[in-house]
Structures are given as C-alpha cells and as structure tokens.
Write a structure and sequence with these properties.
This protein is an alpha+beta fold and 170 residues long. The chain has one domain (3-168). 28% of the residues lie in helices and 20% in strands. The chain has three helices and six strands, in the order ββααββββα. The chain has helices at residues 25-33, 50-69, 151-168, and strands at 3-4, 13-16, 78-82, 85-90, 93-100, 135-143. A six-stranded mixed beta sheet has the order 1-2-6-5-4-3. It starts with a strand and ends with a helix.
C-alpha cells in the first residue's frame, strides 16, 4: 500500500501491482527509491542518494494529489504512455500506473484528445485526464534517459497489469 484514501478522496487507494509469481516491480523500485538506494538508477550516487530521496517524496506528493483529487497536481506531472498505462514523474524518475476496480476487470482509459467529449464536470485544466477507477496500481519504475519512455518499460507495465488483473479474478 502506497497511499490510502480517506473520506472525500477521489480514489480509494494506490498500491503496487502483483505479478503472477508474487513479485512486484513497483514495490521493489519504490522501496529502494524512497531510501535512496535504487542502484539501477544511471545517475545513482552512493546511498543514500539525496536526489532519489527528494524525487521519491515528490512522486508520493503527486500520487497523493491524484488519489485525493482525481487528477494530477499540474499538467506535466503525468504522461499517458499506452493502452491505459500512465506515468507519474519527477525529474528523471518515473513510475507507471493503471486504474482498476480490483475485481479482475479492466478497461483502459486513455488520454482524452477531444475536449468536446471530455467530462463536463472535470477540472478545466485537466479535461484531458480521464476519470479513473477507484484503485490505482503502480506497475514498475525507471529512470528516463531519453526523450521517450523506454519501450521495455512500457512493455513491462503492460505485462504487470495483465498479470495483476488476472490475479484479482475470483
């Protein structure tokens, strides 16, 4: 569990997705990043890495805001990646997520491209951000080194989502 909503929060909770084998790439990434010991980071400084500590705190603040309000704290805090997979970001650290009801069902929600079909009740600045289901699941994290998310990071996020949703089925 990364964050649990309270009365009035948009989302119920934000948690790490689970793979078929019981592992969680997001949980491993999160555990190391928040103590400044994620050694796979290409910019890693000896632990505790102050940049990782700072970025983990910022990522948590972004996630909490999404959980409480239903949209990101500012437009550049998230990116739509592919097929209902989103990333929350700060500096070069990224963590992918998707939404679910937690019952084994899943419907991808992509970025809204046409304001005319956006939810008229949505916050005007975030009309492009869809209304997500009550549970957000983190899939995996990475350090961005180029102009786009690495294809292997997106592929892993899609695979983790598939395995996690299957794990939820009764």
């Amino acid at each position: 569990m990364v964050w649990r909503g309270r009365k009035g929060s948009f989302h119920d909770r934000i948690e790490c997705a689970t793979r078929e084998d019981g592992s969680s790439p997001a949980a491993a990434f999160w555990a190391d990043l928040k103590v400044g010991d994620w050694s796979a980071d290409p910019y890693f400084q000896s632990p505790p890495d102050e940049n990782q500590l700072h970025n983990a705190a910022k990522l948590f603040v972004h996630l909490r805001h999404i959980g409480e309000k239903g949209y990101p704290p500012y437009q550049r805090a998230v990116n739509f990646l592919e097929d209902g997979i989103w990333e929350v970001k700060h500096d070069h650290h990224r963590i992918a997520y998707f939404d679910t009801y937690g019952d084994g069902g899943y419907e991808p929600k992509d970025k809204v491209d046409d304001r005319r079909i956006a939810d008229p009740e949505s916050n005007d600045d975030f009309w492009w951000y869809p209304e997500l289901d009550p549970i957000l699941r983190l899939t995996n994290g990475w350090a961005k080194e180029g102009p786009k998310a690495p294809p292997e990071a997106i592929e892993l996020a899609l695979l983790v989502r598939e395995e996690d949703v299957e794990h939820d089925k009764p």
